[in-house]
Amino acid sequence: MGRYIVRRLLQAIPLLFLISLILFVLMQNMGDPLATMGGRHVTRSSDRERLARQLGLDKPVLVQYVYWLIGNDWTWIDMDGDGVAETPGTRRGVLRGDFGMSLVSRRPALEVIGERLPNTLLLMLTSEAVIIIGALVIGIYSALRQYSIIDHLVTAISFVGYSMPIFFIALLSIYIFAVYFKRWGLPYLPTVGMFDPAVGKTPAQVAWHMVLPIFSLAFIYFAAYSRYIRSSMLEVMSQDYIRTARAKGLHNPTIVLVHALKNASLPIVTVVGLDLPFLLGGAIVTERIFAWPGMGRLFLDHLSRSDTPVVMGILMMIAVAVVIFQILTDITYAWLDPRIRYR
Amino acid sequence: MSASEANIPFLELSTQETEPPPLTLRELFWRRFRRHKMAIAGVVTLILIILYSVGGAFFLSEAYSNHTDTSIRLQAPSAAHPFGTDTVGRDVLARTIYGGQISLLIGLSAMVVEVIIGITVGALAGYYGGLLDSILMRVTEAFLVIPQIFLLLVMAKFYAGEITNITLLGRTFSGSVIVIVLIIGATSWMYLARIVRAEFLSIKEREYILAARATGTNNFQIILSHILPNSIAPIVVSATLSIANAITTEAYISFLGLGVQPPTATWGNMLEGAYNYVESAPWLWIFPGLFIVLTVLSINFVGDGLRDALDPRALAK
User: Fold this and answer.
1) Do A165 and B145 make contact, defined as CB atoms within 8 angstroms?
2) DSSP bridge pairs for B168
3) d(CA B250, CA B103)
4) Do A315 and A22 touch, CB atoms closer than 8 A?
């Protein structure tokens, strides 16, 4: 097992280099970060040259990539434009934990990302918990009562949920729970932001503002998750060892929740393991609609202004998380099913 | 044909008396597909939607769908404008018709791009194996590690600046349509490539491939005319579902403002900015949204039916 993990980690390294190189080259040609720096004034061409030089944007892409990766404090850079490199570089590079300065806010990219990460994690982990628990309940119920009315109903709804783009359910839920509830004089749900500025950022406010985004995300993901759980539970429940357990006279809840669920959860673990790292990036569209100050919106804002350090930081963070979660999924697999051996 | 059949009544009689002739693959497929009621409903809905967006063009011109009149902006549905008007006074009904054409077109062509890349990568990796396989599969993994929406946004931004309008069949399209098709195809082929590779890995070990090789068939022909036709079932299912995916994906990036650029309408870019009018003008997002949901739902049902009908392990009844 230990050797397997080490080998997987070693395999991931060239993969991450490949991804970072492709993304970096894409980012470099994407637009002009200097265009918006002058604020309302048009940037003068002499200023442009000076800014490009100081930010290292005049270098060839591959040199910029090397500086981004391992920093430039081992070499000299030309700051005043006389063609002589005289100033020692200060960047330490991603490999030493320096993601560079955000071109938009002139603060370390890690700091900018770090401010938003908790908001996204709060929203996404809560949603994921709601989705998993809800899907477990629904999935197990419809597996035990196959072809019952509720089972058919859940199947139908899950097909609709699976086919629905998240912005549509989000707009629909805003329309029903905020607009119409307000019109009917019912207590209505807030639709934008994390808290009401008049009240302040209290836990109750934040929870209240999370209801609609979580509802939208859950509606979409319930579908797929509960279907997986239903089908794998159905498969497991018809196996011999379940009959043996019944013959021994075990309680039904014990059989379902301990004996069957453990084996039935293998496919679900895969799905959750693959989905979890993507939660780090936040649901871009959901955060946009509900104006949730998370990573998804940060990504959109900084992408539109070609802020390479922040965008690359977010993307690489997700990439690393995906690799780690794949390995964690494999480990969980081996724990759930001792027949699986990794070499 | 009819004369020769009339001349052999014996043969006809005897086959009727013994057992029915074995079903052809097509009949077998149709028998299974027909049983899937939701898939049939999906096909019917899809035909209606295609009729709506293609046939509608005979009643309302494209110029009308792009005609702006700010004096009638944001009007609620009425007799003159059954689906209301948008923020610059364009008719929403006409735009769902022309937007539907583009959305369906994007779905289909992105699927074609995806299938071409997916089959090429999967076939080469599965058939040749070895170093080529390792390289191609590492590239596939690299694409899988970044969520598609992030990759799409970066690529959409990358190509955004350098496109001009194109004129085709007397109509002008925003060049971004082609860009969107290409980047959706280029970011969604990974699952298909894996499916194709797995099929190729198992089929290339069969005896008939050995026989083909022994008779001197070259690799290219073995891939195209011996292995590929035998692995077509999962490819068809996956391709069908990927049309639905492409339509949703287009809607997502257009919703975020990086998709197809106006004046060309798509169901997705009609929704852009509509969230500012959730309360005041719900017809702006309800109609294009409903079309997307209906189309995607129908395609998913059809894909589900195809999966059952094409699965060789399923029983024909």
Assistant:
1) no
2) B171
3) 8
4) no
Do B299 and B244 meet the contact criterion of CB atoms below 8 Å apart?
yes
Distances (CA, A) of A209 to A115, A174, A215, A296, B279: 19, 12, 11, 17, 18
CA distance A215 to A208: 12
* Side-chain half-sphere exposure of B313, counting CA atoms within 13 A: 2
B248 touches chain A (CB under 8 A): yes
How far is it, in rounded angstroms, from Cα A10 to Cα A337? 25
Distance CA A279, CA A129 (A): 12
| Burial of residue A274, with CB atoms counted within 10 A of its CB: 0-12 exposed, 13-18 middle, 19 or more buried | middle
Local mean pLDDT, 10-residue blocks, chain B (317 residues): 48 56 77 82 91 83 73 74 76 86 91 94 91 88 81 77 63 75 89 91 89 90 89 88 90 83 81 77 86 92 84 50
A318/B153 Cβ within 8 A: no
Report which DSSP code applies to B223. Answer: I
Rounded to the nearest angstrom, the minimum Cα separation between B276 and chain A is: 9
Check CB contact of B136 with chain A, cutoff 8 Å: no
CA distance B138 to A328: 20
ipTM: 0.80
